[in-house]
Write a structure and sequence with these properties.
Number of strands of chain A: 12
Largest sheet of chain B: 2 strands, antiparallel
Number of helices of chain B: 14
Radius of gyration of chain B: 22 Å
Distance between the termini of chain A: 23 Å
Strand order of the largest sheet of chain A: 6-9-10-3-11-12
Number of strands of chain B: 2
Strand content of chain A: 15-25%
Radius of gyration of chain A: 21 Å
Distance between the termini of chain B: 29 Å
Largest sheet of chain A: 6 strands, mixed
Number of domains of chain B: 1
Order of helices and strands of chain A: EEEHEEHEHEEHHEHEHEEHH
CATH superfamily of one domain in chain A: P-loop containing nucleotide triphosphate hydrolases
Strand order of the largest sheet of chain B: 1-2
CATH topology of one domain in chain A: Rossmann fold
Structural class of chain A: alpha/beta
Oligomer: heterodimer
CATH class of one domain in chain A: Alpha Beta
Order of helices and strands of chain B: HHHHHHHEEHHHHHHH
Helix content of chain B: 55-70%
CATH class of chain B: Mainly Alpha
Shape of chain A: globular
Shape of chain B: globular
């Protein structure tokens, strides 16, 4: 898998699909997010990187309409807005795929695929789900992304984590999302499955969507990303485009920059492991 | 990164096993209850001679229908992840309201019946609004409603009629026609079938239709299975929950009117404890107590098991005191079977 060589035509003129400008969010007296700016353009992937507790989740929840920001401006296609709820976000073309709560595990795949936007046929009291269309569309859309389901009736909880992510992404793309927000899509996945998901993320980008990719894995981010925003303890610690940053630099910043250097010195100074009773320093570093 | 456009190679996933028809059958939520119903039927067919007579069929079905009318919407509610402990006394409330309103206003009883419908739906709406506003567990909310309604039933009845039961309204205008709708019976051969059986069949059919063929049904499963995910994809979670409580209230109204028009007078203390029987019928029928899974037809099978057991014990000429024991044992067995079946069905992971 190589990073894209010929990116889809980017829409650099005109307003961004989503633009956050110095956005802040407070929970009581806790600064969950402060002065964060982010730009999402059609055909681009904007990555948000940060360690646990950096404010990534808060950021998504604002973009997805689950929370309202307390300060700064939030523009959708140039127009300043505050989203009322997730439905509002969806109606404006922002679809969010959450790491854990993207699907209802006990429901069949096809019911999950159309959940919240089910097609119906018939009128009045005979208005009913268009079950055949739902099943066939689900099957076809999943096949397009390389998931060949023998049975779209199986509970979605029986699919693997990567497949579930792909179903959720396919769903968002199918329903005409303009902006796709992905919350740690590769966090719980193995190498191969991560590859499948990233491939699909890139496919969504090439289809002209603007993608927000939240992750704590700089390698995954650098493979597909066009812009990178680093969050640290609720504040923005860096903002780059792909041209002005290297993977090493990104990894270094992501891992804490100077803190990492300090750690590396410490590790170097650590005595060679004395198998029995050696100090546990470095035990948990890869 | 070459995934775009190109149809992915049709690779078959070696981790997916072929689904056998048997496994599909095992995946049905009603399975456990159907097996249980067959076992109960066989058991009483052997031990009770009169159980297989045609006239017994009407009696068993009638017993089943009085539970089943409520069990169907209660099953939907449980699939939606909530309880309604007030369902039992709400039936009594609904009957009391019709009776007392008609009597006090000396109006046509249909006026009382209509007022009762509105007020009973009001109880359902109260449950739903309290649940969605306060976000307290439905167990607590409806336990509160249960106690309040029990008190109101007794208090108002004593206040208005001076005793614990209502006055007779049998000679009032509209009583006969209302009795036809809610408490008549038709005789086919030797079998006497109460009209509640029709109400029951209609409600189960409607509930099944809603559950598996409408958007609302899809939302019920989603809200019960994973409410946060449902909300995130735009399912109106609040409306769905309130709708479910309104469904229970509507069935309580039907049951209440049956109670009133078959006995003419209503005892204000009735109905306590029935809410658990509805829940038991739904659970025996395959509803998960945690929500997200189950069926309306299962609740009907649960109600039939209930009807067969309660009447079968009589036909077997045993002491009916044993009934509760059977019900409890059945509940445990059904729940264990359901849990086992579901594990098997999902074991493809």
């Amino acid at each position: 898998m190589t990073a894209t060589q010929a990116p889809a035509p980017r829409d650099t003129a005109g307003p961004a699909l989503v633009e956050l400008d110095d956005v802040s969010k407070y929970y009581g007296n806790i600064k969950a997010l402060e002065n964060v700016s982010l730009e999402v353009r059609a055909g681009e992937i904007s990555c948000v990187l940060g360690d646990n507790g950096a404010g990534k989740s808060t950021l998504i929840k604002i973009i997805a309409g689950l929370h309202r920001h307390d300060a700064g401006t939030f523009r959708i296609e140039g127009e300043e807005t505050t989203l009322a709820n997730p439905r509002d976000a969806l109606d404006r073309g922002i679809a969010t795929v959450y790491q854990d709560l993207a699907v209802v595990p006990l429901m069949p795949v096809w019911r999950n695929f159309f959940l919240g936007s089910e097609p119906t046929k018939g009128v009045g009291p005979f208005k009913r789900l268009d079950v055949r269309r739902m099943r066939e569309t689900t099957r076809a859309e999943l096949l397009r992304m390389g998931i060949d389901l023998r049975d779209v009736d199986q509970p979605i909880g029986t699919l693997s984590g990567g497949e579930r992510q792909c179903v959720a992404i396919a769903r968002a793309v199918y329903f005409g999302a303009k902006v796709l927000v992905l919350d740690e899509p590769t966090a719980a996945l193995g190498v191969k499955q991560s590859g499948v998901v990233l491939k699909y993320v890139a496919a969504a980008r090439d289809a002209g969507l603007g993608v927000v990719l939240i992750t704590h894995n700089p390698h995954h981010a650098y493979l597909v990303g066009d812009r990178f925003v680093l969050l640290k303890r609720g504040a923005m610690s860096g903002s780059h485009t792909k041209d002005d940053v290297t993977l090493d630099e990104l990894t270094r910043q992501m891992a804490g920059g100077s803190e990492l250097e300090e750690l590396s010195h410490e590790l170097e100074r650590a005595p060679s492991p004395d198998r029995l009773g050696g100090r546990p320093v470095g035990d948990d570093t890869p | 990164m070459t995934a775009t456009g190109q149809p992915a190679a049709p690779h078959t996933d070696e981790r997916l096993l072929r689904t056998s028809p048997l496994r599909k059958l095992l995946g049905r939520p009603e399975l456990g209850s159907v097996v249980g119903a067959a076992a109960v039927f066989l058991f009483f067919a052997i031990v009770a001679d009169s159980f297989l007579q045609a006239s017994s069929l009407g009696t068993v079905l009638y017993a089943a229908s009085t539970i089943g009318i409520m069990a169907a919407p209660v099953a939907l509610l449980m699939i939606g992840g909530e309880f309604d402990l007030s369902a039992g006394v709400m039936v009594t409330s609904s009957a009391l309201i019709s009776s007392m309103f008609s009597y006090q206003m000396t109006a046509n009883v249909w006026v009382g019946v209509f007022v009762s419908l509105l007020v009973t739906l009001g109880f359902g709406a109260f449950n739903g609004f309290m649940l969605t506003r306060t976000k307290l567990p439905s167990f607590i909310i409806t336990l509160g409603t249960f106690l309040m309604l029990t008190g109101l039933n007794l208090g108002f009845t004593k206040l208005i009629s001076g005793t614990v039961s209502t006055r007779t309204i049998g000679n009032m205008e509209g009583f006969e026609s209302a009795r036809k709708v809610f408490a008549s019976y038709l005789t086919i051969g030797d079998v006497e079938l109460k009209v509640t059986i029709l109400w029951w069949a209609a409600l189960v059919a409607l509930a099944t239709w809603i559950l598996i063929r409408t958007r609302f049904g899809n939302w019920i499963f989603a809200v019960g299975g994973e409410a946060d995910a449902a909300r995130a994809v735009g399912v109106p979670v609040v409306r769905t929950r309130i709708g479910l409580y309104l469904g229970v209230a509507f069935a309580a109204w039907v049951s209440g009117q049956h109670l009133l028009f078959s006995y003419d007078v209503v005892q204000s203390g009735e109905g306590v404890g029935n809410e658990l029987i509805y829940i038991i019928a739904a659970v025996i029928g395959g509803c998960l107590i945690t929500g997200g899974y189950g069926s309306a037809i299962g609740s009907a099978v649960g109600a039939i098991i209930f009807g067969m057991t309660s009447k079968g014990i009589v036909y077997a000429e045993w002491n009916p005191d044993w009934f509760k024991f059977f019900l409890g044992a059945m509940l445990l067995l059904a729940t264990l079977l359901n849990a086992w079946v579901r594990k098997r069905a999902e074991a493809t992971k």
